[in-house]
Write a structure and sequence with these properties.
Elements (H helix, E strand, L loop, with lengths): L2 E3 L1 H11 L8 E10 L2 E9 L5 E4 L7 E4 L8 E6 L5 E5 L10
Parallel strand pairs: 1-6, 2-5
Antiparallel strand pairs: 2-3, 4-5, 6-7
């Protein structure tokens, strides 16, 4: 499985992961809603379970993805400042380039 994190997102995520209360936790990408051939995504922090695959990224942040969940393979995590500040999670490899 693959996961891409942009530089903006990595900077925000590192600040959160470095907090003392998050020691030992990893970033988890979840599917909040799926229909048809695409999904809507969310983020959470947690510890790996036997249902997770730990995916290393080029930004030094490990991401937890549910093993075998095709709609999670290839997700991209970005953080935008404009027009609205926040995380944007898409899966370009599945044709999902943003919420509709």
């Amino acid at each position: 499985m693959k996961c891409k994190i942009t530089r903006n997102a990595a900077n925000v995520l590192r600040r959160e992961l470095d907090k003392q209360e998050n020691a030992g936790k990893k970033l988890r990408v979840i599917i909040t809603h799926s229909h048809g051939d695409h999904a809507h995504y969310g983020l959470d922090l947690g510890v790996p379970t036997d249902k997770d695959e730990v995916v290393a990224t080029d930004k030094g942040i490990d991401v937890l993805l549910t093993s075998g969940e095709e709609l999670l393979d290839g997700v991209k995590i970005d953080y935008l400042y404009f027009p609205k500040e926040g995380f944007v999670i898409t899966n370009p490899s599945k044709g999902n380039h943003g919420d509709h």
